[in-house]
Amino acid sequence: MRLIAIIPAFNEERTIGEVILKLKQYVDQIIVIDDGSKDNTCQVAVQSGAKVYRHLINRGLGGALGTGIKAALLDEADIIVTLDADDQHDPDEIPKLIKPIIEGEADIVIGSRFLVHQPMPLFRRMGIPFFNLITFLLFGIWSTDSQSGMRALNKKAAQNLEIYARGVMEASPEILKEIKTKQLKLKEVPIKSIYTPYSLSKGQRFSPGLKALIKLFISKLTE
């Protein structure tokens, strides 16, 4: 099976090189989607050995994931893994992440930070379960970590997902909505998350979270 990792990246020159180097031993190809970065994200990613697709303007997580999934399918991916560019995810967990797909138990696997006890910033420990509940109430699908950026998809899921939301907090619930709508098999596996001052500085805040909730409700009303 051909395994391809896709990494959406916006101004991540500080960490993208290290993320790519850590990934190389686990995947056949690494695709970075430079989502309108103003720094050297593209150059660092290319020098580190990734294939890079560039957006001239920032299209948000949904647009970056959409570009990455299409590129991976064109590159004949059998399994696609998504990771964040801020070095928050541990590539050592990829074999565990893709195992349910290889064994035919799932079309999509979400790496959940809430299936194992670990230190976590208070905002995320309280905010993510709230988003889990809202996502369930709106779209009828449950995840213990609806905001996780570490996922694995088989070819069927990759060909069927349609992601339009821009923001991180809207795109992740939209993926769950698509799983329910397209009747894809979902499984979760426990993962650890690596929190650094840098990754925390890039994290969610109250105001974007509130805006994301409003957009999710609007999305439900306009179905």
Q: Please give the CATH architecture.
A: Alpha-Beta Complex
- What is the CATH topology descriptor? Spore Coat Polysaccharide Biosynthesis Protein SpsA, Chain A
The neighbouring-strand order within the major sheet is: 3-2-1-4-6-5-7
Strand content: 15-25%
Integer average pLDDT: 91
Number of structurally distinct domains: 1
Order of helices and strands: EHEHEHEHEHEHHEHH
Pairing-aware structural class of the strands and helices?
Answer: alpha/beta
CATH superfamily: Spore Coat Polysaccharide Biosynthesis Protein SpsA, Chain A
Distance between the termini: 36 Å
Bin the helical content: 40-55%
Task: Give short descriptive properties of this protein.
223 residues, alpha/beta, globular
Written description of the protein model:
With 223 residues, this protein is an alpha/beta fold. The chain has a single domain (3-221), classed as Spore Coat Polysaccharide Biosynthesis Protein SpsA, Chain A, CATH 3.90.550.10. 44% of the residues lie in helices and 17% in strands. It is built from nine helices and seven strands. Strands 3-2-1-4-6-5-7 form a seven-stranded mixed β-sheet, with helices on both faces. The longest helix is centred in the middle third of the chain and has 18 residues, at 122-139. The mean pLDDT is 91.
Reconstruct the topology from this structure.
Blueprint: E1 3-9, H1 16-23, E2 29-35, H2 41-47, E3 51-55, H3 60-74, E4 79-82, H4 94-102, E5 108-112, H5 122-139, E6 151-154, H6 155-160, H7 168-181, E7 186-190, H8 197-201, H9 206-221
Parallel strand pairs: 1-2, 1-4, 2-3, 5-7
Antiparallel strand pairs: 4-6, 5-6
Helix pairs in contact: 5-7, 5-9, 7-9
